[in-house]
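In pairs, describe these two lines:
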Amino acid sequence: MKGSVGIGLRRDIADEVLSSDIIHPDFIEFAPENWMGMGGYWNRIRQRAVEKYPVSCHGLSLSLGSPEELDWNFIKDLKVFLDENKVTVFSEHLSYTKSNNAHLYDLLPIPFREDAVDHVADRIKKVQDFLGRQIAIENVSYYTPVAAEMTESQFINSIVEKADCKLLLDVNNVYVNAFNHKYDAKVFIDQMPLDKVEYIHMAGHEQIEEDLIIDTHGKAIIDPVFDLFEYTIQKMHPVPVLLERDYNFEDLPAISAELEKLRSLIKNHWEAVHETSK
């Protein structure tokens, strides 16, 4: 899957991804929580998708930053699901979604602190040991830092090193955070452990105020995010790249054009480097 371009399998476009002549991903990604235990029609759709495409999974509810014990019943079901669906890459968010077992249905930021590094790294190691695979953790968008004692880049680097995990580099999230918190996105990319990146996410966002961008996954990718993606891939080895779109699927040709633009940038850089190194 290195250097391939995929799309998230959402129910709104499942038929199109599986059957149409408009959308042509190299692989698909889905959230396990949205498909685990599903029967009937949607189970048949999942089976068709797994038969047609390589599959990656992007989790929503491990809640790596939560203070309470990991949900081992869920993790046991997750392992079965990943193995049965021949999932090539499993990723999760560097955030938390539960507190006192209450599901908050949002990706909340973890404090950039050394004790949080130790806590999260320990949880990642436990999950990796049980699943028998490394996790790729995603840098998330956040709108206010919480009790920070180090920078976000230091926080991410420390966790990747201590947990011996991989990184899912969300380029749009870097752009969103850089805009909202007024730092240089390219400098942040330079500070990432790019040799540990297993996967890249690309997505659109929405600017709702002069000084505020919200990560929505519902808009087209803007040129500055494509520029940041191009800057990034010149500094690292080929990995799978996913186009994230959660809603606004009406214009399928435009979404297909985004996939093709990602392929074009990859061809210009990663394939050229590969040919040169032969």
In short: Residues 5-277 form a domain with the TIM Barrel fold (CATH 3.20.20.150). The longest helix spans residues 252-277. The CA atoms of residues 156 and 227 lie 23 Å apart.
